[in-house]
Amino acid sequence: MSNGLNLSPIKIILMLGLIIFGLISTLAITNYIKTAKVVNNQSINSQFVINESPQQIIENQWIISSAQAQELVAQGATILDARSCKILNPQSLLNATCISWQEFSQSQSPFKGKLLTDDKILTEKLQAIGIFYNKPVIVFGNTINGWGEDGRIVWMLRTLGHQKSFLVDGGFAALVKGGFPTVNFTKNNSPLRGDFVVNRNKNWHISQNELKTSLEKDNLVIIDTRDLQEYAGKTPYGEQNGGHIPGAIHIYFKYWLDNNGMLLSRDKILEMLTEKGITKDKIIVTYCTGGVRSAWSTSVLTDLGFNVKNYSGSMWEWSASSSDIYPLEISRKEGVGSRE
To answer: pLDDT, tens digit, for every residue of 215-261?
Structure first.
């Protein structure tokens, strides 16, 4: 007589299979939860960057977190150090190539803020530092003491046709904090020669004459990204005349950074812009002295979804031109353009 506990070999095998399957499923779910926590913890080091994997990074995203940068580097991205490595920074990141924005700009005053005009020369320079068509480029700088050089390089690469170039929120300090290996600076790490060929994109650039003819447009917003004394008329960096472009709003480029050199949250920056009357239906032009601080601002604003162009000639070019054609305003009221 059966007591109900006698099982056939087939039933025993099936039951064992179900038990093993359950154990495997439990372990998989546990591992998934742990992995999700790790990824989440890596992503929250920046309040500004949208938490996307490298595969989800699109052309309109110009700014990435240190965690995203490390993932891109693991996939073969080119690393550019936009700081003054040779003078002020004895250390850099492993496999980074140190460059300066001046290498790609005109040398003659008052056009030092403008890119070289010869695409063949620019192509040669970019290939020499390891820029490839299909490899992302990450650029970092010194966000606390720098001038936005990383943004200038990213703006330049985008303008010259490389649409997978990004600046790292928090720059060098954020990457080191995130565990990226450092090395003592050497003259060059001899990168592999790239295959990138310049193919200019006009979306993020405006010339002096184009800006002049646009001054009266209702939907134009001009942002002066220099400090307040420059906006008010001081000329500490070789401008031939002081003042600001008529109608320009003053927003010093570092207003968008916290004390640690990290970008403020997207919502905070958008709130600051809205308070100034700057909305996404406007066309924005940024400028500074030589198109560096303004290029960094262009990178941030473009990442936020604004239609923005950098006037790279900036005050070096504008102030050296005829004031009858390219006028300047000087602020007489204390505090004009300050961040209230």
So the answer is: 989 899 999 999 999 999 999 999 999 999 999 999 999 999 999 99
49: DSSP letter: S
Count of CA atoms in the C-beta half-sphere (13 A) of 27: 6
What is the C-alpha to C-alpha distance for residues 31 and 80, in angstroms, rounded to an integer? 35
Q: What is the pTM of this model?
A: 0.82
In a domain, residue 324? The reply is: no
Same domain, residue pair 192 and 64: yes
Q: How many CB atoms lie within 10 A of CB 264?
A: 17
195 and 236 part of one domain: no
Structural domain ending residue among the three candidates 165, 181, 201: 201
pLDDT digits (tens, 9 = 90+) for 128-139: 999 999 999 999
Indicate the residue type of 211: L
CATH number at residue 120: 3.40.250.10
In three-state secondary structure terms, 60 is coil
Asked if the structure places residue 168 within a domain, the reply is yes
